[in-house]
Structures are given as C-alpha cells and as structure tokens.
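Feature request, filed as a ticket because there's no other form

It would be nice if the structure record came with a short human-readable summary line next to the tokens. Right now we just get the raw output. Example of a typical job, pasted below so the devs can see what we mean:
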Amino acid sequence: MNSKKDYYKLFAELFCYVYRIYFNEISYEQPVITKNIQLILHNIKKYITHYTEKEENSEEQVVLLNELNIQYILFFHKLLKQKTTMQNINNVSVFNSCIITFLLIKSFNNQTKTFKSEEKSSKFCSYLIYTFKILSLRY
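Raw output as currently delivered:
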C-alpha cells in the first residue's frame, strides 16, 4: 500500500465492514454500533437505493449524491467519536469502537492464524489517520 488509492481503499473497507455487520451480511458480536451510526447507515442505504432509481446525471441524482456525501462524512465523524473502551454485555467483553475491531481483523493473518507484523499493522492505523485528516480538512 503506497498510493492515495490504497489509503482510500482502506477507508472504504472500514465503511463496508461496519455496513455489513449492521445489515447482518457478516456476523460479529462486536463492535457496538450506536443508534446514531445505525440511523446514518439506514440513510445511506436509502439514498443509494433512490440514487440508482433516478435518471442518470439528473439533478435529482446530484442532490442525492450530495446527501450521500453528507451521510458518509457524518458516519466517519461518529466513528471517530466512539469510545475506545470495552463494555461488558452478558458477561462478554465487547469493543465499543468499530475502528478498533476493524484494525484487529485487518491485522490478523487468517492463513497463519497470527497477527501481521507491527509494521504492517501500524501502516493500517497510519493510513486511516491520514485519510481522516484529509476528510476533515476537506469538509
């Protein structure tokens, strides 16, 4: 990973990870997805559905795309505001942060059943931090 494309790809993977957990496309008991994030995910799904139903390059599509961008920014803002602590649910410790669980999964090598090197794992963190900074400067 060294290009801007790789940075944004990791960001997109984070979004897909949370989206798929919430809409039960993959099942994990972690992380805790707050009501705010749930609402934003529903809005994103609704806007995507409406966007695909509209005539291509129409004014309605432009409006929906702007709304999608706003929801996307709100989504990442809410992720950043999540607590990084763990909570106990039914005597099981659960991470509050979607970012932490995503980074844990991303850092795990499924073939060897071990974690990737610290260097590779810290790159993921760095890429996310960089992209969050760029996003916050842009909006």
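Something like this underneath would help us a lot:
The mean pLDDT is 86.
Residues 73 and 115 are 30 Å apart (CA to CA).
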